[in-house]
Amino acid sequence: MTETRSTCPYCGVGCGVIIESAGDAITGVRGDPDHPANFGRLCSKGSTLHLTATREVTLQTRLLQPMQRAARGATPQPIGWDAALELAADRFAATIAAHGADAVGFYISGQLLTEDYYVFNKLAKGLVGTNNVDSNSRLCMSSAVAGYKMTLGADAPPCCYDDIAHASTLFIAGSNTAYAHPIVFRRIEDARRANPALKIVVVDPRRTETAASADLHLAIAPGTDVALFNGLLHVMLWEGWTDAAYIAAHTSGFDALKARVRDFAPKDVARLCGIDEADLVQAARWFANIDATQPAGRAPTLSMYCQGLNQSTSGSLKNAALINLHLATAQIGRPGAGPFSLTGQPNAMGGREVGAMANLLSGHRDLADARDRDEVARLWGVVDVPSTPGLSAVEMFEAAADGALHALWIACTNPAQSMPDQATVRRALERCEFVVVQEAFATTATCGYADLLLPATTWGEKSGTVTNSERRISRVRAAVAAPGAARDDWAIAADFARRLEARLRASGGSRAVVERSLFEHASAEAIWNEHRETTRGRDLDIGGLDYARLEREPAQWPWPAGAGAGRSRLYADGIYPTADGRARFVDAAYEPPAERRDARFPFVLNTGRLRDQWHGMSRTGTVARLFGHVPEPAVEMNPSDMQRLRLADGDLVTVTSRRGAITLAAQASVAQAPAQAFIAMHWGDEFLSGAAGGPAETRAPGGAADARPGRAAGVNALTQPAFCARSKQPELKHAAVRIARADLPWRLLALAWLPAERALAVREALRPLLGELAFATCVPFGRERSGVLFRAAALAPPPATLVERMEALLDLRADSAPASRPRLHYSDPRRGQHRTIRLSGAGAGTRVDGFLIAGDISAEAWLRPLLQQELPAAAHGRALLSAGATPPQPVVARGRQVCSCFDVSEDAVVACVARVPGPPAVRLAALQGELKCGTNCGSCLPALRALVDAPAAQHVEGASVAA
Questions:
Q1: Which CATH architecture has domain 142-341?
Q2: Which residues form the 4Fe-4S Mo/W bis-MGD-type domain (predicted)?
Q3: Of 13, 238, 432, 874, whose CB count within 10 A is highest?
């Protein structure tokens, strides 16, 4: 076995991993105990990374060779690399010649490495001469960037993870850290154990697991964050808790802000935000942290925040208003104090460093600054860098939908799932004349729209660097060779760039002022060295770093030439990277969300993460065990709203916004306030389809990932494209919707165990059937075995051929089931009833290996656990074919999964806790000793603590809490 140190490709925590491999196969992964981001810990997603890289997964899901569609709607066919890149260069050169440089665009990703990002940025702005290069980080971190620049003068998070251990108050706003950044949450748990006096305030409309762990949960009305922060400052001013000396010595603009917050009296803010006035005052007291025993006269406060602040039409002001509180109380520049933006993607920070967004330039330079543009042009050897800001993410797809963007290159991201207002995005992908998708996985929705598909390497196969939330640069290393014909992202972009460069030189359209190619890089290290040169003298100066140093250990910037180490905290001297060296208070006016609730759309829809899934699930969706915690899509609603609408758990509802509609199951959850709803961001039409009675979508161009007429595009069929004027980040966290029961009486449920080498391919083959039904979902399940679940509903039974196709794919037809797996079958077409059971074994060892039930599916209550728990089936006899029949012997379904690592259910936890007397800590230790839950990745610890602390079974998210 070979061991390779690398970095996790999921969130911005930037955990170090050790990849175990044998030959060309990744066989395991564990946390790197020497990496300062995680010290060996991994979350449920990171600890299963090796399962996303098996041979079975690669052969069934990966894009392994370039593919070309000869025409829209055609099946893509293999093409060689030379032919593919020649075609791309021809099409882009022709588009630029006919329509100008701004007729092309590049949409890239925070999951690219810094070296990949750098080449794409230079390709667009240096070679092509367009600033139309933007990243999916626009959906993630651009408001945080704007907030830092507006206040502190640079996009430089001033804190580090070690500050969590030094803080006396943690102020967490708009972040379900327990789910989105689990390893950061492990540090919070450590800090609380070491300092029981630590106070935690959580600002979130939902009662998430993070909020449930807080000393004070401010469950504000969605979108009222600026009003809350201004109200906190009002209280601090009234009580004399601000730091007048710091404000006078190190800041500017306070008078205007002071005048603004006079209008945010506590009683008014409490009413607007929907919280208690006393809680507002308490939060202000804990944030200011006046403490005469401390050297600074106050104990340190660390704020941490993420998409709840960022994904808003006032996202920049939300960020700035929170930073205002730090400046007003001098809570910055010392251990345990400061505003800490938690980065969403693994290398969103690296992309910002190289300026790979439509309004940025390399080395944190400003596109609007002529001197900055001139510096970059000289470094690159081009005539100039265009001064007009490029199209941001939302604008880019709107331009393509309007016919203004003629060629689009998409790399390492899935806009046909992740972008808001999917109807517009898909219209853009259809109308754009030439779409290139550079991707590792062939299963994303966006691949179905590509004229040219280019196979890229992914985690475990590529080398370079990433930068995490605390400005720490880590090495990413290849453990195995690239599969098939896959190439590194930077190498694909550079090869294309050289070919396009030759065409532009030949036509006299070259922008280079040097004879050599702009893209002579021979390695990722060579690209990084060029990037390093762009940072010298900048706030992120890494002139003193090289790959040799990074080979030994991760490093934080800035690390200028001559420095012995990077800097863990910024602004300790009170000097900021602004023209006058002072931080700037921002006069933050409260702006309501772009879309209001009204009688037609009375619910506010929020979106967010699941604990065990990542983005559009192109990677995590290949691991069946990661569906154990949340097995199927649902809309979570407050129980009072469920009761008012006469809905029970599992009832299908149609959620409709002004842009689209989707149908899915309703689920009661006390995490949601009345008139609010929540759908996880991960559910796209790769896993979910159906919009019974909702607005229809346009038809996509063909292929397995295509939409069908009337088919919704997952949760982002509902979300809105309105964005923050300053950051251009869309308001994915807030949409007005209505929710109504879906009248779909015919139901279908199919589950089947399948060979591991076929299960994912079968799920992909089932995807076209999703769009043929008013509602359908198709997800993997299983742990040691691989299974596929297909659930559907319709107004009337569909054609018999659809069910037959499904049975054939799931090995449920008699002609596909070998004699060793007999099939039971019953059908009544007139009544729409249909049942097929596939068995395995014999006698007492008989098991249900697969089934499809249609029409009346009430037998799910016992058939599903019979299959998934692999219980003996012989005693159930004829009941297997009796719709809704009570089984001869009781079948007890397991409760909701709590621990993914050891597959521990909630009922097992509750039963264990009930047997153990003593305080919660004793019960938790006994629980961990007996069931092992919470002893591996720790992602389930918040849920375990809630269950241990509760007098009866308690769900924080997605269920009810005992009275």
A1: 3-Layer(aba) Sandwich (3.40)
A2: 1-57
A3: 13
* Closest residue by Cα to residue 786 from 701, 693, 849: 849
Type of residue at 383: V
Q: 715: closest CA among 619, 793, 605?
A: 605
DSSP 8-state class, residue 123:
I
Its pTM stands at: 0.95
79-140+348-371+387-510: CATH topology is Rossmann fold (3.40.50)
Q: What are phi and psi of 641, to 5 degrees?
A: -70, -40
Task: Report how far residue 777's alpha carbon sits from residue 790's, in angstroms, rounded to the nearest whole number.
Answer: 6
| CB-based contacts of 908-914 (< 8 A; 24+ apart in sequence) | 909/933, 909/944, 909/947, 910/947, 910/952, 910/953, 913/947, 913/948
Q: How far apart are CA 963 and CA 950, in angstroms?
A: 10
Task: Tell me phi and psi for residue 688, to 5 degrees.
Answer: -140, 140
Q: Where are the domains of the chain?
A: 2-61, 79-140+348-371+387-510, 142-341, 743-893, 898-949
**Pairing mode, if any, of strands 104-108 and 77-78?**
unpaired
165 neighbors 191 (Cβ within 8 angstroms): yes
What's residue 450's pLDDT? 97
**Topology (CATH) of 2-61:** Phosphorylase Kinase; domain 1 (3.30.200)
Rounded CA gap, 494 and 561, in Å? 29
pLDDT in tens, 533-546: 999 999 999 999 99
Rounded CA gap, 271 and 45, in Å? Answer: 40
Phi/psi region, residue 953 (left: phi>0; alpha: psi -120 to 50; beta: rest), is beta
d(CA 351, CA 358) in angstroms, rounded, equals 11
| 328 phi, psi to nearest 5 deg | -70, -25
Q: Are 711 and 671 in contact (CB under 8 A)?
A: no
Computed from CA positions of residues 410, 414, 419, 423, in that sequence, does the dihedral angle turn out positive or negative? positive
245, exposed or middle or buried, with CB in 10 Å at 0-12, 13-18, 19+? exposed
pLDDT digits (tens, 9 = 90+) for 512-532: 999 999 999 999 999 999 999
Q: Which amino acid is at 570?
A: L
Give the pLDDT band (50/70/90) at residue 709.
very low
Is cis: bond before 558, omega within 30 of 0?
A: yes
Token pair 């569609």: residue: 69
CATH of domain 898-949: 1.10.10
